[in-house]
Amino acid sequence: MTQLPGSEWRISEGLKSILAALSVDGQVPYAVGGAVRDSLLGLPVSDVDLATPLLPNEVMERLESAGIKAIPTGIDHGTVTAVADGKNYEITTYRRDVATDGRRATVAFSADWREDAQRRDFTINALYADVESGEVLDCVGGLDDLKTPVIRFIGEASERIAEDHLRILRYFRFLARFGQDQVDAGAFDACKAAAAKLQSLSRERIADELLKLLATDDPRFAVNQMIAANIFSNIVSKIDGEGAALLEQLITREKAFAVRPSALRRLVALLPKDAASASKIAKNLRLSKKLQQAVTHRLVIPAKAGIQPAKNSSNALNSGFRRNDENVSARAIPALAYYQGEEAARDIALLFSPDTEVAACLKALEGWQKPVFPIKGGDLITMGMEPGPAVAETLAKVEAAWIEEGFPGEKRVRELVEHTNR
User: Fold this and answer.
1) Is residue 292 one of the residues assigned to a domain?
2) If pLDDT is split at 50, 70 and 90, which confidence band does 304 have?
3) Quick one: pLDDT at residue 306?
4) DSSP conformational letter for 419
5) What angle do CA 128, 152, 159 make, to 5 degrees?
6) Residue 255 forms part of a structural domain
7) Which of 402, 413, 389 is CA-nearest to residue 306?
8) What is the domain range of residue 230?
9) Total number of domains constituting the chain
10) Residues 284, 147: Cα–Cα separation, whole Å
């Protein structure tokens, strides 16, 4: 019999109070899914989901009677959120699918956890456990798959995908996180055959899964499998082997310099390197305006930063930089950080600087704080300039020279003003 380790989440007073409120005639709620899976793998547990034979209304009543806040987050589908000791616990009644259309399901409630397990996606996500005793319950082979490890759909992969097309992307996300380089042929073939079904999903759901996948420690193998299965052509255009090669280089650099993974940075690696195409994809994915702007900032380098366009490009404001573009050097990084921000400058260095410059680029950002340009237009007028357009023009020229010299103090800036006005 497999037992859960003595994880900290199991002894939470809030969880104990929920279990007590929902235990009836010897039947207790079971922990299910990620909390069980991750505990067995020795990974941190952030969310605890529970499954129970109690109907949703009874769950609500029992929680409220015990003084526990209950929120009917998805009560029609059997889900109630309990809030105890400041933490949320999602509690779902055992269910079986009655009808599905690839995007949503009509469910009927059940009294059997085994029936509930059959409607879940992957075997490693259908592990149940008695929180108090620690006994793990498995009727789908999830424990063996967790040891391999391999990501396998429960039952027929094509049927699970037909129930929810998003499971195609979830398969590759779980492959990235847990599957390492083990591919279940049935799962892969089913995902490839149904790839066009992804077009029926909302862009928001697709983007959410894609960013989660890219945020995993090392998604390179999974991304290459997605390209092989023709997944990207059905969700994001123009992602191919060239993008995968840049992702390979990027993650190698992240690991070499102990830089934390960034889903955004990795997405930029995969996207076309001209800002117009990348921005269009980011918009089509319904990314937030902030993320759309962040994509652009990593591919559009201001001309005023002093970096010339990539080869064969006529306009620095409308072109990205190829992965080995020698203009993205340590000397250019402070200017990039000044105009685009430290995070964007770091990403640009990791993405586009040549191998010989990466270390120096990152070192240039250590302890970075954006300098404050020490003079304003009024200072120039005080120094004798006539008010007018020339003031702004002079300020821009002096600021560019100030950045070029590494942000010297006010004394040197005043010398630059005098030099500019000669």
Assistant:
1) yes
2) low
3) 62
4) H
5) 95
6) no
7) 402
8) 149-235
9) 4
10) 39
